Inverse folding.
């Protein structure tokens, strides 16, 4: 069975009909051990292992409803066991090592070998500012990346390292083509890989959140956002920026802090739901509706009134369509109202219209509380037949880390168990005004069944390899998770490094390498 088909079946298994369960307090059990190898590694190329996993889910008599698009599941979750280098020599020499540097794993060219897609931030020209910082008792590292100044710089393009049969990866020079007058992006906040044009290969959507006037993690002038970048796969093996030809409003700009992708109207293709800002935020979240072959039409009425900073799509009520889950800035003492809304589930009417606040979820609204977040993931974590939620939370601005598990108790009720992973002292918190400081350890979440036991696990990911990135949380089956630290011998993640243990180079960049050499 082809691996993409296996993931399609696996994605079906985790989207199930609702039923009730009893709540249990969240407990993180630290099973770290330098000498233990009890957690087995799963090779992303081992089709047999995934077949066995699928068979194990069937023996549990799980009732399956309409799945996600298989390309979406595979692109976002299918290869999470394999992690590429946070940086390569080429990326470090050509881009700044700024805030979040996201990379994703996917089989971009359909050859059955995992590739790495990197999304560097814009090339900052003043990473240390003038060197003059405010007169306070904070260290330079607590004044942000550009030390009290607005970070400015130039746009960049994604970079794809293609996997080869000899276990090495090579930068695809010329793989990304952007012929716009102002090519590239500045900060691709939460990029998504999915087969938007239906050709069987992953395309790229980049939600660009930084405007032309010079915005940054400290002393931000404006957060008006930028037009998004939309790279569609071509028959010649390249990805061409296609906004002008495939988006109804190619120059539409908003600070869409997050996007979620999935087939919201059940017409067989992948759509996009995005957060908004400014005047658009007064309306709510917007959608790009895929009208076949990747042609997208902007819909400003799909999620009216749903004001959010983080989004996720999942079938939360078991009726076979994707519902919208939103997290907003829960601290309403903030001076702006960009993200004021509700943290809630919004049911889909079956046609891609989301009803506002179908189920309101617990919030943490204190000014110095865990009132914001970076990621939401949905899965049936306890295999009881309904979808549960996990939130990665932080304090403003992106300080500390807490994991919240919201167990689906049935009948529109959800539990809330919050585990603080790393906190900041209150007095220190009151003085921090900037992003990009040493206290910024907020994490994205990624799903996978790392130990092949039929239970969905997750890992944290920051894009920069900080102290809490790449920790793995193994599901105990009762809504508790055992933590395996990233450097422990029994961590199931397979991490690729620029050089292997024999000092042989694994990641290559060749000046004269072009896409035709791949075909």
């Amino acid at each position: 069975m082809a691996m993409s088909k296996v993931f399609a079946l696996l994605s079906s298994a985790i989207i199930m009909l609702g039923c009730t369960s009893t709540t249990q307090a969240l407990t993180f059990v630290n099973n770290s051990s330098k000498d233990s190898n009890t957690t087995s590694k799963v090779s992303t190329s081992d089709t047999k292992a995934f077949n066995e996993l699928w068979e194990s889910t069937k023996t549990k008599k799980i009732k399956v409803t309409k799945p996600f698009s298989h390309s979406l599941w595979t692109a976002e979750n299918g290869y999470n066991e394999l992690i590429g280098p946070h940086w390569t020599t080429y990326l470090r020499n050509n881009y700044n090592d700024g805030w979040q540097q996201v990379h994703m794993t996917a089989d971009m060219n359909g050859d059955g070998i995992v590739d790495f897609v990197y999304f560097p931030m814009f090339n900052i020209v003043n990473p240390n500012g003038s060197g003059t910082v405010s007169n306070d008792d904070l260290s330079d590292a607590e004044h942000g990346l550009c030390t009290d100044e607005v970070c400015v710089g130039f746009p960049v393009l994604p970079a794809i390292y293609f996997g080869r049969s000899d276990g090495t990866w090579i930068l695809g020079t010329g793989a990304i083509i952007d012929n716009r007058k102002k090519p590239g992006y500045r900060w691709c906040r939460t990029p998504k890989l999915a087969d938007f044009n239906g050709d069987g290969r992953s395309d790229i959507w980049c939600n660009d959140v930084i405007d032309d006037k010079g915005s940054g993690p400290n002393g931000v002038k404006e957060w008006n956002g930028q037009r998004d970048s939309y790279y569609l796969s071509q028959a010649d093996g390249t990805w061409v920026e296609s906004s002008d030809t495939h988006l109804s409003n190619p120059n539409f700009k908003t600070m869409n802090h997050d996007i979620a992708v999935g087939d919201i109207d059940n017409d067989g293709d992948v759509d996009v739901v995005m957060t908004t800002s400014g005047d658009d935020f007064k309306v709510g979240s917007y959608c790009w509706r895929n009208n076949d072959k990747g042609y997208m039409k902007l819909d400003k009425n799909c999620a009216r009134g749903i004001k959010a900073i983080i989004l996720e799509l999942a079938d939360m009520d078991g009726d076979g369509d994707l519902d919208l889950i939103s997290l907003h800035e829960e601290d309403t003492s903030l001076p702006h109202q960009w993200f004021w809304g509700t943290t809630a589930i919004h049911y889909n009417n079956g046609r891609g219209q989301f009803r506002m606040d179908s189920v309101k979820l617990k919030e943490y609204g204190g000014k110095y509380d865990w009132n914001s977040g970076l990621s939401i993931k949905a899965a049936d974590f306890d295999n009881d037949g309904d979808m549960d939620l996990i939130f990665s939370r932080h304090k403003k601005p992106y300080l500390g880390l807490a994991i919240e598990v919201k167990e689906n108790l049935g009948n529109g009720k959800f539990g809330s168990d919050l585990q603080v992973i790393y906190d900041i002292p209150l007095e220190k918190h009151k003085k921090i005004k900037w992003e990009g400081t040493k206290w910024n350890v907020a994490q994205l979440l990624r799903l996978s069944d790392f130990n092949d036991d039929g239970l969905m696990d997750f890992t944290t990911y920051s894009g920069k390899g900080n102290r809490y990135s790449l920790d793995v949380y193994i599901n105990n089956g009762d809504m508790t998770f055992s933590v395996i630290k990233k450097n422990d011998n029994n961590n199931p993640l397979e991490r690729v490094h620029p050089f292997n243990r024999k000092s042989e180079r694994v990641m290559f960049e060749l000046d004269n390498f072009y896409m035709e050499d791949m075909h």
